């Protein structure tokens, strides 16, 4: 270093490529930022890990096959999650059935058919707003509209319709993003071959957007699966000793059952609640795994 | 640039060469294409000769691509575009009430600047157009025929069901040409089809154009003057939305009548 100092520049043969003071400072900033990001990521994971650890510890010994196949009971050692798990699966299936076609159709209309203008912008802003409306508000809407208004009563159907309203904005927004990401050149190629708008959408736009749409759908349904508030409003029960046999049946759901157990005074029920949480997390995990697989298959 | 603009060609459309007018398949009459209020094509009157290659040249932003896209109504997809004047296809007004733009595009095919194959197999890329238009009777034969016409068959015949995205850029562009040919169009519009390709691939496409000229009417937009001189029968020179000069390619490049054309083809601007 010292023997080059000063003379380095005047001797063209000698090149000094070591970092100078300003570059060292920039380097330092880059390093600090990198470690800051890592620390923040880890802090999120640490809290998640702590939560998971505590839940697993409480659930240990309570989560077994019998727990999955028993109905709720006053005696904690005989109580199980069967009715709530079945109720959640019914609920989420019907929610998907209603919300996916409507959401994808709405997104297709807004992206492929609607002309840009103030109406389109107004719809877009309103959908974004709806995505932020508290779920209890949807619950009240569901109670007024489905349970009482059209007389569906306290049923899987009422709750599914309510949940569909809740997740629709999220599905529409995700599907729009996915559809917008399909390159314009693909549409032009199809149109130039004498394709109609529908043929273009059906054969090229939808298949290309499908992985993105599915990811959005599963994220939206994952949100729905953990919601308790709208279910309380639309009449999910905490004590159900049967599996729903149709959309008009009474039902329970995992978050309702977990909430019920955790609010009991006896410690045993808290273990049951923890076991219920583990089941809910496993269902979520399964759904998100499907999303990852679909996305990877689609990007190939 | 603005200093020389005053010497720009006459506002009135240049006289057509008699031959081009005689063989006309598509004719524009005082065509004006606007994006909102800005005119990109200004009163262009031009006759496209049948089974000839017509090149449209001009500096960037002169409206040549917009003009090309007007010929098969691809501008319909841009909401702000409005059109004045007429485009006649075999005497029929392309914007007439009983004209369906889908039918127009079936007969007047298009190849784009960047190769845009569908993310499907090579076979499906070529077969899709005929299929959706109900022309799918002898599909495998039609696919082979189209790929042969596009000089791609020998390179892909053993991997017809591989994804088209695995082909090189030049092969992809020839696939896009094959895809357009499979529709058995009368006219093929090409929007700078070689600008994303290397010289070897460009040469192959130019050779292909010569062969296609026997059967198809081709309009090619290019910013490459050598390409226009090599491949085309007629050349239209545009600047600032106006048709400055139109005529026999040899004449345009050797004895242009408008000084502005001469300045452009000799490389003095643009």
Radius of gyration of chain B: 19 Å
Average predicted local confidence, pLDDT of chain A: 86
The helix content of chain B is: 25-40%
**Number of DSSP strand runs of chain A:** 0
The unreliable regions of chain A are none
Q: pLDDT below 50 for ≥5 consecutive residues: which ranges of chain B? A: 1-16
Q: Strands of the largest sheet of chain B, in order across it?
A: 6-7-8-3-9-10
Kindly report how far apart the N and C termini of chain A lie: 52 Å
Radius of gyration of chain A: 27 Å
Helix content of chain A: over 70%
Shape of chain B: globular
Order of helices and strands of chain B: HHEEEHEEHEHHHHEHEHEEHH
Major sheet attributes of chain A: none
Beta content of chain B: 15-25%
List the helices and strands and how they pair.
The complex is a heterodimer of chains A (300) and B (270).
Chain A lengths: L20 H39 L5 H5 L12 H32 L4 H14 L3 H15 L6 H25 L3 H9 L4 H29 L3 H5 L20 H9 L4 H33 L1
Helix pairs in contact in A: 1-11, 3-6, 3-8, 3-10, 4-6, 5-6, 6-8, 7-8, 8-11, 10-11
Chain B lengths: L1 H4 L12 H5 L1 E12 L2 E12 L3 E5 L6 H7 L10 E9 L2 E2 L7 H7 E4 L10 H11 L6 H11 L3 H4 L12 H13 L5 E5 L7 H14 L4 E5 L3 H7 L2 E6 L2 E7 H6 L4 H7 L5
Parallel strand pairs in B: 3-8, 3-9, 6-7, 7-8
Antiparallel strand pairs in B: 1-2, 1-4, 4-5, 9-10
Write structural notes for this entry.
- The complex is a heterodimer of chains A (about 300) and B (about 270).
- Chain A has about 300 residues and is mainly alpha-helical.
- Chain A has eleven helices and no strands.
- Chain A has helices spanning about 20-60, 65-70, 80-115, 120-130, 135-150, 155-180, 185-190, 195-225, 230-235, 255-260, 265-300.
- Chain A is flat and about 90 Å long.
- The two termini of chain A are about 50 Å apart.
- In chain B, about 35% of the residues lie in helices and about 25% in strands.
- Chain B contains twelve helices and ten strands.
- In chain B, β1 and β2 form a beta hairpin.
- Chain B is globular and about 55 Å long.
- The interface of A and B includes residues 183, 191, 194 and 208 of A.
